[in-house]
Amino acid sequence: MIEFCLVGGGFIGPLHAANIAAHPGARLRWIVDTNLPAAESLAAKYGGRASADLDAALADPDVHAVMICTPPRTHAAIIERAARAGKAVFCEKPIDLDMDRVTACGKVLDATRTPFFVAFNRRFDPSHRALFDAIRAGEIGRTEMVVLSSRDPEISPPDYVAAMPYGIFYDTMIHDFDMVRWLTGDEPVEIVARTACMLDAASNPHRDPDTAMVLLRMAGGALVHVNSSFRAVYGYDQRIEVFGEKGMLISRNRQPTTVERYGADGVRQDPLLYFFIDRYAESYARELAEFIDALSGKRPPPIGFDDGRRALLIAEAAVASAKSGAPVTLRA
Amino acid sequence: MIEFCLVGGGFIGPLHAANIAAHPGARLRWIVDTNLPAAESLAAKYGGRASADLDAALADPDVHAVMICTPPRTHAAIIERAARAGKAVFCEKPIDLDMDRVTACGKVLDATRTPFFVAFNRRFDPSHRALFDAIRAGEIGRTEMVVLSSRDPEISPPDYVAAMPYGIFYDTMIHDFDMVRWLTGDEPVEIVARTACMLDAASNPHRDPDTAMVLLRMAGGALVHVNSSFRAVYGYDQRIEVFGEKGMLISRNRQPTTVERYGADGVRQDPLLYFFIDRYAESYARELAEFIDALSGKRPPPIGFDDGRRALLIAEAAVASAKSGAPVTLRA
Amino acid sequence: MIEFCLVGGGFIGPLHAANIAAHPGARLRWIVDTNLPAAESLAAKYGGRASADLDAALADPDVHAVMICTPPRTHAAIIERAARAGKAVFCEKPIDLDMDRVTACGKVLDATRTPFFVAFNRRFDPSHRALFDAIRAGEIGRTEMVVLSSRDPEISPPDYVAAMPYGIFYDTMIHDFDMVRWLTGDEPVEIVARTACMLDAASNPHRDPDTAMVLLRMAGGALVHVNSSFRAVYGYDQRIEVFGEKGMLISRNRQPTTVERYGADGVRQDPLLYFFIDRYAESYARELAEFIDALSGKRPPPIGFDDGRRALLIAEAAVASAKSGAPVTLRA
Amino acid sequence: MIEFCLVGGGFIGPLHAANIAAHPGARLRWIVDTNLPAAESLAAKYGGRASADLDAALADPDVHAVMICTPPRTHAAIIERAARAGKAVFCEKPIDLDMDRVTACGKVLDATRTPFFVAFNRRFDPSHRALFDAIRAGEIGRTEMVVLSSRDPEISPPDYVAAMPYGIFYDTMIHDFDMVRWLTGDEPVEIVARTACMLDAASNPHRDPDTAMVLLRMAGGALVHVNSSFRAVYGYDQRIEVFGEKGMLISRNRQPTTVERYGADGVRQDPLLYFFIDRYAESYARELAEFIDALSGKRPPPIGFDDGRRALLIAEAAVASAKSGAPVTLRA
């Protein structure tokens, strides 16, 4: 039984708390939030002890793992505290937005030999995973092109946007950058990025980019396109297409029902699943299961610190290219 | 070059005239219609000589084949006249609605050794044909169940309906009865039919059945379902599903475009093709080509008099079952 | 908190035990199985007290509800014992296979005013439910035809088949009979059924029907077709199509992933979900939630004794028609 | 009746000859090819006089229009000769690969006031056209992103490739550049292009790019991605996706049949239509019809010299960017 200290009871915290509670090999031991009522509310529902004091939780020898669900800029510090307390760490992406901070954090993890898992949940989606497996099995031969569409139905609230400029790269496309690395087993050597502000000032008062396209060249020669938007009115649009010498693989979108409605005006199906939590429900449960398996020694952690660092490097390069207009070279 | 006398310039006549004109190995020599202007209009467009006098056309030794596009109740007499004049015959289904009349007609065809083709156009549709080929290739093993949906977007005009009571079996499902025989290579031994009048009195003043379901048992044991309606508001709905020991084959509907429209209310595609002539455009061209090939001695006629007779026998049995309520036995 | 006594730890029992454990408003208090180790295994995983003695469990005043997951022929007796003990009952379908037994059972339920829920899980599937909602909202106007495909990937083991002859109606199509009643809000007045044995003797040694088609006529005039098979090699095939004066609604199948694989030989997608428990995972969770809501007084039980009885009456009539060959009349 | 002189009997020539022959308002008067037997073969099939002498044909006062189907580098000279002879011109794209040559050609067309039509056939595809119409109707509001996949199943023969280096832009993506201009009603202001050689030396001995991705920025701010490959083994892959503030429109691929094959290994459909002539059969017929309508004064020519010139400018910029690595600015 792996006992967890969950830090951060808002946003994605409740989802992870529910998944820990439902996993037969895991248990919530502490829920820590500086906003104590948030922690208490989760504890009432899923068990565990609510607290505003992270140190107290980290001092508990029965805690095996810390799950970090706090805002991005707090991640690095909590990772380091958990690592120094000898706990395994499951951390929501990104590790940090500043590369120096990330590097420092990595040194602590190395020094403490901390098992670390960065939660790029999409790797655990059954459809995306089927693409990975098919590519590895040689089904499409050499990968030549990858096309990713990664669109949110809505932009985040203004204060969230203000706290993370260029979030379209740092927060959204960072998932796609990880997907590309994972699916191809290769690293990008160059990136060109372009952005636009398409939303009106009411929705996007900070005029942070809400629309973006990226062109990547991989070390092995494959070409990659990613596009994102913060207003896909038809739902959370998540598609991956991998083209190779022997064929093409597509991971398509999901809809709430399989219903088709035939009328004089055509055939209508549901809009796409709207919330990322619905779309990736299975992947959240599976990433937790894999982390627990890794801690139980069943297999190595499937995704680690360097994966988080490299995805961030690509996001940084995307921002640089979008700002300067020039292609940016990456070291493979 | 096969020279045609086309009889009947209305309804399906213009389509066949256009196809003859477009076929490199065929030519329209006569267009006969008791309504001379209809014949003249087609002749002006597609060539050939317009006439109201069928005897004159049949006396022309350069006519190889007669194509019959007149109303159903005139078919048998024209077939016999053409056969006695030594012409090959391409006839729209049905041969006749009265089985005795059909039998008599068959004797004339036999005596005159007339090449005869009954135009069950669906056999020549590429998708339906792919099902036939896959079944023959053993792709699904033994056929166990067949499900056909065969729905028109609108009911025929009242006088057309009045001229052919139970047209839902004699005019519409007769195609499906032929499909079942052709796809399974088997004959039905029993039929149960049920009908309903769902349209209002304005659309269906004669209260002839506009909705029907049929359950057939084949000699080889397979079970078959067919359903029809005269008001599929979303277009001409034509689906065939064949289920077997190793899998299932489906021939789906076709739409005018491949467009998908994603909006907040869902994903919308075109309604189905609305007119049977659009839906089966390819099959009409192909059936003509196969008839011409047969006359040119390239291969035997793919569908003949007995196919027309047997489909009609099943339609007759369907009517009998719908009227009595009892299952009707057919001789295989 | 609703406390459950689950009876029957095999087959569907573990699924219901897991769902009770996962529901925030429910708890497993007893797990009863005459095969004690089966009960113990479930209790170890999901909590509750394992026992082979149903009376002990029924004597526990803290048990609110009994969930019956035992073989069909034991249902009626357990229902009556639970009812007399003052417990609410959630029972897997069918109530019994003998109509007199069902009637007797109903009298006990009436006399004891027992809240009763028969688990026609498909009513709680989101796609089927969307059809129900659209029909009720008038989206397709009057319902004119219903077509259901309800096919299992495999036949049950021989002893299961031997214990319930004509299981294709009593065990499988009984779901579809309920679907038809529920979707149309109408009752059938006539049924014709035909069956076949398509599997070989090794798979189906008792030569019980493994393939069936049914034609129903509803009191309101709608025509209904149902087909079933026990060897859909491509997976659990569950489709419902409702055709009406203003359009058509289809609830399609589900697949494990959304992947499309394009190669020189075509475009390939996953086979259908293979196990009914995967296909209807959501509906099992939802039916439990609705039962709990009903017990908590939030709303009336959505499906009751008479629904179970009427579906069985239709199944009985199907068997009678399949045996005699004649249509069987049902009282609406 | 519009009388045509068709120049160039190879490659796309026979298709246009067949379409002219089938059009009720057009007739083939001359077929000119320096390889006389090619011209004779077409004339035998579709009518008209075969010749190797273009001057003779241009001197015929009954010729209204010249249709140019010769290799690209001969287009400009033939256009000018036809224009000076007072004939309308229908020319396969591109006008020429050298911009100065194009400009000179344009001056001749202007001076002679020649009706000119450049055959970007995709504008006449019903599905692409439905996108155009929906965008113009405001269905998706402002266009924010466009994604085009434009992949050939095979690379052209080596001598064809040698005759037109960077054909992936000049010959293939030039269609997409036209699509983008037409669909958005806007002009690109910047382009970044990347290419790769993925085919082996046997298929692509000249090592000309066989794989490419492009990122365009439009004057109005929209971002555009285009990808191409010369080995889509699953067929001719032609997709357009337009994303806007109110939704998304997709024009999907077409397949020879609508058949679905369900087996234990999944659900299989046909590969995509393999030949561009099959895929765009309707668009070739429609572009001819629109050209004829324009000559008949029914409406203005839907696509003209400047469309050909601007698409070529974008292709040139793509080549420049692919060679230098830098983004290339275009004047809107």
List the helices and strands and how they pair.
The structure is a homotetramer of 332-residue chains.
Chain A (H helix, E strand, L loop, with lengths): L1 E6 L5 H10 L3 E7 L3 H11 L2 E3 L2 H5 L6 E4 L6 H10 L3 E4 L7 H14 L3 E3 L7 H11 L6 E9 L6 H6 L3 H18 L3 E9 L14 E8 L4 E7 L7 E8 L2 E5 L7 E5 L2 E4 L6 H4 L1 H15 L9 H20 L3 E2 L3
Parallel strand pairs in A: 1-2, 1-4, 2-3, 4-5, 5-6, 7-10
Antiparallel strand pairs in A: 7-11, 8-9, 8-15, 9-10, 11-12, 13-14
Helix pairs in contact in A: 4-5, 5-11, 8-11
A few lines on this structure:
The structure is a homotetramer of 332-residue chains. With 332 residues, the first copy, chain A, is α/β, with parallel strands linked by helices.
